[in-house]
Amino acid sequence: MRRKASLILLALAVFFTALSPLLRWYAFPRLAKIPPSQYQEMVLEAKPATLLDYGTMRAKQVDKITIVQTLKGNVEEAQKIGKSAGRDVVVWDSLSYVQGPDGKMVSKIPERYIFDAHSQDPVHATGEMVDGDPVKRQGIEFKWPFLTEKRDYEYFDAQTRTTAPIHYKGTQNFRGLDVYYFEQTIPWTKVSMPKIMPVKGITPEAVAKTGTTRWYTTVRKFWVEPVTGAPVYGEEIHQEELRGGTLLGDRDKVTAFSGHVKMREDYIKYTVDLVKSQRVLVMLLTSYLPWGFLGLGAVLLTLSLVLEARSRRPGDPAPHGDREPAPEPVNV
Fold it and tell me: I need a labelling partner for 185 at 20 to 30 A (CA). Which of 19, 133, 216, 320 fits?
């Protein structure tokens, strides 16, 4: 009986020991993915800020600028593109909506971001765009990969439509989470006018005819939870200028927008709580279950060997099938 139990425990030990690396290196890369229907909203503020008054074409300081960013998963497009690409794809239709202290629109920039649901690598397909302009992204945007590494990444800047390194600057603790801090600086660069302008009747084409151009620079900062790859907090030191042309009169340039943009407190708390819950799910597949199964396999193997050793102790009666035949009687 002990020998039979020992064999069962040995089989279970082999099973759980083999399951440990399979779960981490085979199941996890296939199971961990961004859902195609994800919806996310984020509110950021710059307090105070400098904003262009299009009535006077002069910059003025305002109490607050609000930026509402939404990401909405387009399931239908994700299925269509994923089928042709032969892999799981996520399509995010995003909108960055900027409003002044009076609640009126300052700018709104739509984007379509298409990426691999598992690795977060860009997937190039028809419809990939920023503000209606077709783009071909390189690098990440919005989200880092699962199990983010302590290294620099290529990050796509929507304003310039270019990719530049975003640098790993160290590990910090943010609201009870160990996070990686990343920073990217985009130098002054000439960028396109938004397709939708804040003043009725003014179009990018009309501004272009005056010879006035738009320039932009930013310092982008992200605090990223490395297990999920999700940013839990972000800031931008953002500046925009209009330069040259007859629109500015005798001035060489004027500030269109300047401010230190930060996530609003209620959205910080919501994001941290959400990432903490998602982190547990990823850790189950990458750490808790693989190490747990490995430990369970070791315990079962030990029990199996103990039972096997006890079944062979000296002095125990031999099993029925192993008994030696009785000696034949000797006639005297």
Answer: 133
Inter-residue contact 216 to 227 (CB < 8 Å): no
CA-CA distances (angstroms) from residue 42 to 65, 91, 232? 14, 18, 11
Assigned token pair, 192: 């396109």
Q: What is the pLDDT of residues 107-118, one digit of tens each?
A: 999 999 999 999
Taking the mean position of all CA atoms in its chain, how far away is CA 68?
A: 19
**Residue ranges for the chain with pLDDT beneath 50:** 332
Long-range contacts formed by 81-89: CB under 8 A, 24+ apart = 81/114, 81/123, 81/125, 84/125, 85/123, 85/125, 87/116, 87/117, 87/118, 87/123, 88/33, 88/36, 88/116, 88/117, 88/118, 89/36, 89/114, 89/115, 89/116, 89/117, 89/123, 89/125
- Helix 289-311 vs helix 2-22: angle between axes, to the nearest 10 degrees? 160
**Alpha-carbon separation of residue 144 from 46, 59, 89, 101, 217 (angstroms):** 25, 36, 16, 32, 22
User: What does the alpha-carbon distance between residue 240 and residue 219 come to, in Å, rounded to a whole number?
Assistant: 12
The candidate with the shortest Cα–Cα distance to 242, out of 234, 253, 232, 231, is 253
Asked if 154 and 137 count as a contact pair (C-beta separation under 8 A), the reply is no
Tokens of 82: 């994923």
- The ranges assigned to domains in the chain are 1-31+283-314, 32-263
